[in-house]
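Hi W.,

Here's what went into the run:
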Amino acid sequence: MASISKLNRHQARTAYVFITPTILLFVIFTIIPVVMAFYFSFTNYDVVKNRDWVNFDNYKRLFHDDLYWTTFKNVAYYTVIFVPLNILLSLGVAMLLNFKRFGVRLFRTMNYLPTLTSAVAAATVWVWLLHPEYGLVNTLLGYIGITGPAWLAQTETAMLSIILVTLWQSIGSNMIIYLAGLQGVPDYLYESAKLDGANALQRFRYITWPQLRPTTFLVSTMSIIGALQLFDQAFVLTQGGPGNVTKTPVYLIYQQGFNQLQMGYASAQAFILALAILIFSLINMRINKSEESIV
Amino acid sequence: MKKWISLAAIAGISTAVLAGCGSSANDNASPSSSASSSAGASTAPADKPAGKATELIFWGDWSGEGQKQFETMIDAFNKSQDRIKVKYVAQQDLITKFLTAATSGGSPDVLLWDRWRTPLYAPKNVLHPIDELLAKDSISKDDFYGEAIKELSYKDQLYGLPLTVDARALFYNKKLLADAGVANPPTNWQELEEAAIKTTKWDGNKLQVAGFSLGDAGLFNMYLQQAGGTMLTDDGKTNFNNEKGKAVLDFWGRLLNQDKVYKIGFEQGLGESTDAFATGKLAMTYNGPWMLTTYKKYGKDLDFGVVPPPAGPNGDKGSVMGGFGLVIPEGSKHQDEAWEFIKWWTANKDNALLWAKTSLNIPGFKPALDDAFFKDDPFWQPFLDTLEIAKIRPGHPGYSVLEGDALIPNVQLFQQGKQSAEDTLKKAQQQGDKLLQDNAVAE
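Here's what came out:
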């Protein structure tokens, strides 16, 4: 008995030694900055000179900051369209490419390629593709007699264009995650379902989809976090215009913190955004609720 | 239970990613009491023995061609004496790096300074005032463009010297104007409108040649000056919700919707080599001297001219002056040597001229302009004329936010017919005044 508990203690010690570097890095680069940012959100911290406690002034100001809430509406709209489409398309592509056929690897690679491009470089190319007069998109539309809009310059289409470009770029990596998930679904489930006479649609509905729940949870959670933190593509494609319809909270946080030296206020904005992400993730968790534990 | 763990994990992830924004300079909040000497091998005392030069670190965000131009000047300076040796370091995210350096030590000795930032940073005591140095060397402020000096000043103290000055003037395509029967480039709004109508070419729904560029709503300030107005009042409130602001929007609305000389989004995403003006798809546009090189390089068949901006309905002229300066950070340990370098570069006729010829920028030092290089050049002269009337942006720390978040978005909605001119000005005023107030300087 005694020797077993001794062994356990030894194992526990070793385990702590092994996780120490990670935990240390996590504390230094994650926990401490989060705590400090929370503290700064109650100060008038400006990086260089002031750091006085101002109680809830930053949060009060935030409450009346119409522009900040506009940017929230923008990313909420973006998230609501982007996340379901992202799941639908990456799962669809993954299922198409889940067969063992000649050349399927080539197609997987090609579908993954957009993910490898830098967000800014890809966005620059898309600006050109979406040009109202000389862009490829409107030229193609012109062949079937449609005068395309000025995609990025018009208030109606600017956010849709950003959704299109970010989808194009994020489907690849989510496809890989779904492919891994699909290959983890045991074959015997399909086999017995087939024996019972289930058709393809039923097999998807009652086997594939439930088996992929953990994968879908991962993909949707990461897309929600990414969507609410939208910044670089939107910045390159439209610079927040036209008429503020593509400005995002992260854009404002950066501007307030680094351009206006109001790091305290920017921290408050960042915490409200974090709260929003938490709420969206909770809703997502509800939707993905399943009998077995997810994580 | 497990659910709560995963919840906590999500909260952790999301805040951590966000905190990246706010935390990069957090740990350095204490003032620069512990200023280390990481700025280079510069620990030699002031009365060092001969032969051991002081090394100065010069930060800027120009890379590529710009870096070469800087290095040409630095080489010339380093060769001109043996006490000081300057080294240029190109920083991508200049202002963020400078913020970190200002609080943690390791500050550069000379900094390339986008001048409009002065009213935000000067009150924070991160820049070194140079009035005494100026007086000691009896350098006169009057030798520089007054507006540029004003932009580098805060509360009657001067924080740097202007390195470059620029302002937008009207570029016009000589061939397109001649083909359309326009004999002379426009000198006022009415002539501009007439010339734009004549040069515009549509092919059904496709705009082939735009008569005049209306792509940049940020030029409102310039037009407002031409209409006889100013962006802000003296006590720091918006001043464009009046008949002068209305005149600008009416003019733009007429050009866009009635005369149809432009289409929104027409120039978006066109790079240097496919620039609409360089490729003859745009007859007239406001641009600065920085585009001269591009137009000469890419527009092989482009025969263009430059004239000062056309005057408004009451004959008022206007353009917005911008440009860079050189400043000395308060954290520098070699401020006297830094001053020597700045003085040599920006307040010396020959060196300022060498800089102009090297970089094709207009220097802020006026005596250097009195040279054949500028006087006999048909492209420089209109810019020099424009600089005489050009005004800097208002020196309010919240001004750029007012423009970017209140004025331009509302003007864009107006351009797309989403709101009337009156609503546009009213909303821009309300939102703008609030932003100005929220972003006023906190000392």
